[in-house]
Amino acid sequence: MLKQRTIKQLVRTTGVGLHSGTKVELTLRPAAPDSGITFRRVDLDPIVEFPASAGIVGETRMASVLVKDKARVSTVEHLMSACAGLGIDNMIIDVSAEEIPIMDGSASSFVFLLQQAGVQEQAAPKKFIRVLKDIEVRQGTGNHEKWARLSPHNGFKLDFFIEFNHPAVDGTMQRASVDFGDITYVHDVARARTFGFMQDVESLRGLGLARGGSLENAIVMDEYRILNSDPLRYEDEFVRHKILDAIGDLYMVGHPLLASYTAHKSGHALNNDLLRAMLEQPGSYEIVSFDRLEDAPESYSRQMTREWSYT
After folding, report:
1. pLDDT of 51-78, one tens digit each?
2. CA–CA distances in Å: residue 190 to residues 77, 81, 163
3. Measured between alpha carbons, how far apart are the two ends of the chain, in Å?
4. Which residues are identified as catalytic?
């Protein structure tokens, strides 16, 4: 049986919020089978709990934000991406402020934290959402058109295209495809950093955003070039980070997907719209488990050994 997983032990870290600039303490705790991923604002009295769910994503400007009872947990996508990549089904995430810390701008710090905690298999079958028919959402027209699609696939793969009309971005590969039957999350996705543009920083900070951003936690560009002294971690790091984000956004559905995801200039908003569109059509998906490991798609049957061996 392919089993659910949580972490073995409690682990903690601290960092700053990318948009708030606030110091944050993050604590990851084991959780019971079938409880899912739950965020908790432990700085509030009473504590507010946010089950990871597409339905409570209340804001998608610059990040995926969970909203409940007028409280928020922001920038959850990188940590959710790491949980998806390492196959964590159940976990409690305590956070001491309204934003998950940005760390180095990728998911690699969260991967390291999860590897420190260790993985614990649980006596319950792992549940998947198998996509049964194409689901697509679109926004805009012409050169401004954006879209995202889920299609049936016995595994999990993503194909993403970006276009920023910036020499530093467009000079790299603008399209990337990853199939988790062939590659690993830790090695091939987790290290891709978020990115931004200097000309946007002042306006973003005026909106209360990007206050914690720096060359230490993002790829930053002026009008022509990358300002960071260190090289790109992947030759297609920009589009690969969009794939990292999409993995985290899609994991907000509550279970790993058996699907092919294709996107053209998508972002947090469209990714959430895509999940909501699927959930509104019960005939478009089914919940499945695998009693025998050999019956599970390779994308997931090898996830334990491949991902947790990169320590």
Report:
1. 999 999 999 988 999 999 999 999 999 9
2. 12, 8, 21
3. 25
4. 268
CATH topology of domain 128-308: lpxc deacetylase, domain 1 (3.30.1700)
**Cis previous bond, 152, omega within 30:** no
Q: What is the pLDDT of residues 124-154, one digit of tens each?
A: 999 999 999 999 999 998 888 999 999 999 9
- Torsion, Cα 53 54 60 65, to 10 degrees, reads -10
CA distances from 166 to 144, 174, 225 (A): 16, 11, 9
Residue 128 and residue 257 in contact, taking contact as beta carbons nearer than 8 Å: yes
| Residue 249 main-chain phi, psi, to 5 deg | -60, -45
Largest CA distance in the chain: 54
Fold of the domain built from segment(s) 3-125 = Ribosomal Protein S5; domain 2 (3.30.230)
In degrees, to the nearest 5, what angle opens at C-alpha 194 toward C-alphas 62 and 164? 75
In the 3-class helix/strand/coil scheme, how is 206-243 assigned residue by residue? HCCCCCCCCCCCCEEECCCCECCCCCCCCCCHHHHHHH
Q: What's the mean per-residue pLDDT of the chain? A: 92
Contact 177, 159 (CB under 8 A): yes
